[in-house]
């Protein structure tokens, strides 16, 4: 069981752990992270450099990104506290994770229970504990971040999970970190948070993922395709299916979050993080089929303007080209994504959907509306 941080406990310490390998999948995958020199390690495992132990707070941490990030930080020897509402288990054993690794993680992770929108509680509890670094994984609005900064005036680094969705729609792609942003986007709160961090003069780093996929994904990205492939159904894709997008594996994202920690080159910088390759919607359907060992899928194209789906989404991606350059992260941080698309989708399928676990039940109601019309299959 994870230990719970009581407000009166101001001194909590653990012995640093040696740098080590951590394997979620059991597969052998090569990881190269660049620090003082290049090292070769099994792929699918994560290697992080030995560094001074930090007292780290993760806002969130029990879902998807935070699950993988917190394990890496604990393996590195940092003292890690998760700030959550306590509605989900603080720890869970992951597919492919050994009993020893899970027990080691569970014995070291700390939990601070609270609502981040209770600003008075955030200020009092965080100031009482004191933290060196904050990873904000689930922050959406700037007013949720300000109390954290007020409570931790000596904070060494604030690392923020933003989104590539902040960019203004453009004919010129891929999006770069210097591109114009859209103040009216549904991610405008993340833009305002980045502005707040800059205005407050803290040492901050912002990560902007595109679409994230991988085991435990709570958004219907790859799962949407896997449901249809498993049921042997056609896959309805809007318009031509040639729209280009980009997906990044959650484990690659976690290593990027690790590489900005204490990195002077990441100070007050924004980095796009995603996969190396871009892919069309049709190509993604085929990649999911290949990853899960399914036959070549039947793809149905339709005109979204011909249908009224009410409040339901008929497709999990925005119907447009949407992808970003990751060259800055590669150049400045020495970060490289380790998962190719099919390989990453296979990792997700084998550790999650293929084991019979998924976040949402299949809903083919919009598919049936589309398939009820005479459309051309390809």
TrEMBL record:
Transmembrane segments: none
Domain of life, source organism: Eukaryota
InterPro entries listed in its UniProt record: Epimerase_deHydtase, NAD(P)-bd_dom_sf
A Pfam short name: Epimerase
NAD-dependent epimerase/dehydratase domain location: 56-273
Name the UniProt record assigns to this protein: NAD-dependent epimerase/dehydratase domain-containing protein
Source organism: Glycine max (Soybean)
Gene giving rise to this polypeptide: LOC100799721
